[in-house]
Write a structure and sequence with these properties.
The chain is mainly alpha-helical. It folds into three domains: 49 residues, no CATH class; 74 residues; 95 residues, Non-ribosomal Peptide Synthetase Peptidyl Carrier Protein, Chain A. 57% of the residues lie in helices and 0% in strands. The protein has 13 helices and no strands. Helix 1 runs antiparallel to helix 2. It is elongated, with a radius of gyration of 45 Å. InterPro entries: Retrotrans_gag_dom.
C-alpha cells in the first residue's frame, strides 16, 4: 500500500521517466531505487516509441514512394487519354491471361511505354496491389521489367497449356448425343494453341464408337481437312437428333399403355385374382366335366 503523501505512479503516465526523476530529487538517499527504475524505464520507453515511430515512418515512406523510376513518374499521360475498362487482377488467376487482356485493350497505346506501366498498375486489386507497393523504390524503369516481375510473382497461378495429344483421350460417351460430342471436342480443341488439323481429325474419329455410322463414313471416305470432318459430322448429327427424338416420342406413347396395364395388375392383386375368373356380363362361371362311357374301375385297372 502506498504511503501517505507519496504520489501514485501509473504506466499510463505520459512523462513517467521525468516524474521518477523529480521524485528522486525530492526524497532522501534511500529512495535511490526509484532513480534506478527511471534509468531502466528510459531505454524501454525510447525503444517502444522508437519502434512505433520507425514503423510509422516506414509505412508512410512506402505509401508515398513508387516502384517506378523518376523518368516514368515525371511523364504526364496524354491529354486526350481516357482509361479503358479492364478486368481487374486480384492475385488468384493466370497472370499470362491478364497480360494478354491488358495488351489487347491497350493495343493503340502499346508504343507509349510509360503509359503502359502506369495504367497496368491500375488493373491490380487487393493483394496484387499490395504486392506492387512492396517492390523496391525506383526498381521499374520500363513495361518489360514490370511484366517480368509480375509474371514471376504469380507464376504458380499459370494455367498449364494442354498438348494436342490430349484430344486422343476424348471419347464419345454411351448416353451422349453425337451433337454434344462434337461440341465437347471443339471446346477442348479451342484450348490447344497451334493444334494441327490432321491430328484433330484423327483424334475426333478415334473418339467415336466403331459401330457408329459416322465412324464408318470417315473410314470409307476420309476427309482431307478438319472443316470437312466437322461438316460430315454435322450431317450425321441431324440424323442422330431425329433418331433420339423418335425414340423419346415412342417412349412417351407407350407410357399410357404401361400405366393402364400396371393399374389393372394392381386391381387383380387386390381381389386375389377373382376378377380374372368372372366372365363378361357378371354371370357366375360354369364348371365343365368329362363324361366317360366305361366304368371307372376299368379305367384305373
Amino acid at each position: 500500500m502506498a504511503r501517505k503523501g507519496a504520489p501514485l505512479l501509473t504506466l499510463e503516465e505520459p512523462n513517467l521517466v521525468d516524474k521518477l526523476r523529480r521524485i528522486t530529487h525530492k526524497r532522501s538517499p534511500p529512495t535511490h531505487r526509484l532513480g534506478n527504475a527511471a534509468e531502466k524505464l528510459e531505454p524501454c520507453e525510447s525503444m517502444r516509441s522508437g519502434n512505433f515511430e520507425d514503423a510509422l515512418l516506414k509505412e508512410m515512406d512506402q505509401a508515398n514512394s513508387t516502384s517506378f523510376t523518376v523518368e516514368i513518374e515525371q511523364v504526364a499521360p496524354p491529354k486526350r487519354f481516357s482509361t479503358p475498362s479492364f478486368t481487374l487482377f486480384k492475385g488468384d488467376s493466370d497472370p499470362e491471361s491478364h497480360l494478354k487482356h491488358f495488351k489487347s485493350v491497350m493495343i493503340l497505346h502499346k508504343a507509349d511505354d510509360t503509359l503502359m506501366c502506369k495504367v497496368f498498375v491500375m488493373t491490380l486489386q487487393g493483394s496484387a496491389q499490395d504486392w506492387f507497393h512492396t517492390l523496391p523504390s525506383g526498381s521499374i524503369s520500363n513495361f518489360k521489367e514490370l511484366t517480368y516481375v509480375f509474371a514471376k510473382e504469380y507464376t504458380s497461378y499459370r494455367i498449364i497449356k494442354k498438348n494436342p495429344d490430349h484430344l486422343f483421350n476424348l471419347r464419345k460417351k454411351f448416353d451422349e448425343s453425337l451433337r454434344d460430342y462434337i461440341k465437347r471436342f471443339k471446346a477442348e480443341k479451342a484450348n490447344i494453341v497451334g493444334c494441327d488439323d490432321r491430328i484433330a481429325s484423327s483424334a475426333f474419329k478415334r473418339g467415336l464408337p466403331t459401330e457408329c455410322e459416322l465412324y464408318r463414313e470417315l473410314t470409307i471416305s476420309p476427309c482431307q481437312t478438319l472443316e470437312e470432318v466437322f461438316a460430315t459430322a454435322e450431317r450425321y448429327a441431324l440424323w442422330d437428333d431425329d433418331r433420339i427424338a423418335a425414340m423419346k416420342a415412342a417412349k412417351q406413347a407407350d407410357q399410357p399403355v404401361e400405366q393402364a396395364s400396371q393399374r389393372n395388375g394392381r386391381i387383380n392383386d387386390k381381389d386375389g385374382g377373382k376378377h380374372r375368373l368372372q366372365p363378361q356380363g357378371g354371370a357366375p362361371a360354369v364348371e365343365s366335366y368329362t363324361e366317360f362311357t366305361i366304368p371307372i374301375h376299368q379305367i384305373l385297372a
